[in-house]
Amino acid sequence: MSDTRQGVRAVLSALLGQELTPDTDDTPLLEIDADRYDSLGVLDCVAELERRFTISIDLVEDDLVTNFRTVATITALLDRKLHDARVLGVIS
Amino acid sequence: MSAAAAARVRFATSGSTGVPVEWSREEDQLDAETRLLAGLLDGDDLDAIHTHAPVAHLYGHLVGVRLPALLDVPVRHTHVTEPFDLAGARHPLLVTLPASFSVLARSLSSLERCDRLTLVFSSAQIPPLAHTVVAALGDRARLVELFGSTETGLVATRVFPGGTDWTLAPDVRFAPTLTGTGRLAIRGPRLAARDGWPPPEEITLDDEVTVLDERTFSWHGRAGRLVKINGRRLDLDAVRAALAAAVPDATVRCVPEPDAVRGEWFTVTVDRGDPATLRALGEAVANLPAWQRPRAIHTSRNP
Fold this sequence. Notes:
The structure holds 2 protein chains of 2 kinds.
Chain A: H1 3-16, H2 29-32, H3 39-53, H4 64-67, H5 71-87
Helix pairs in contact in A: 1-3, 1-5
Chain B: H1 3-6, E1 8-13, E2 21-26, H2 27-40, E3 48-51, H3 58-71, E4 75-77, E5 92-96, H4 100-104, E6 117-122, H5 128-137, E7 141-149, E8 153-160, E9 166-168, E10 173-174, E11 181-187, E12 202-211, E13 216-222, E14 226-229, E15 232-235, H6 236-244, E16 252-259, E17 263-270, H7 275-287, E18 297-299
Parallel strand pairs in B: 3-4, 3-5, 5-6, 6-7, 17-18
Antiparallel strand pairs in B: 1-2, 7-8, 8-9, 9-13, 10-11, 11-12, 12-13, 14-15, 16-17
């Protein structure tokens, strides 16, 4: 289990007010709580992930609809960004 | 339906307790306001309008429907989580909501090719990020804030970079009874009417202000316990009462907070942390309309 995935799950659990478990990692977050994970909730999620992982989400390049659909898709995006940042020496 | 009634356009407000209230405006009033906005928002130089504001509300309707028609410029409506696509625009008007600045801050590259940018924001606590975004754009950007409501239309404006005080719109004046500090009361030709009634002579808003001179005022906050969540008014006392009824043995508070995405939001604190209390409170929160729910519920010994 990657640290990234656990971190994403923790952020989403706090945001949605319910404990997310690994078996919902591929469940669309809209199906888990459509009221809280509305368009503004997605932006809350973006800001909290940027703060927690010290990364930047670029909304021109990082499409929210596809990348912020599930815990698994968010984790994949963050893993790519964290890998790129390490390669570029932005983070160790 | 009479011709006069047919010429009226209706807009609903959430009301201070969340109960919708409908206000109607005459075509002449909407035309006058659109022309005012054209003057305030660099209308003679704009070549496109890009908007995040829903057109069902007065602000979105004026700047997203009537203003592009008046100026004969193209308009593009974009979902609030999506960056503006400004390809080909030399001097666009960006119509923003509180959440727009979270998006703009993460899509600045899409604004690089514009020579000038005019941003407009209305009727909510502006997020601090807004000033960061405009400052990052440098001299080519200006942000015009509109102060108003569905019932009054545009009341006043201020520009960033610029001062913090508000200047009345050219056709608005303070009510004669307002001097010094008090609830903002105004008169003007664009006040909306409730159905079956003529437009009122003056309207008193929920805002506490100090009159600085004949045309300017400083804003101190809203009277009572009103917050504006993504531009919608919510009475926290009404929310607190609804939640407190579900947990009569506990003390519940609704604490307003600034919010980067919604402008303002609130947190609920409760002085009991036992499972039964938290379960009942959680159920009461779930029964609220989604937009009226708090950011979080916290237990506190001294709520």
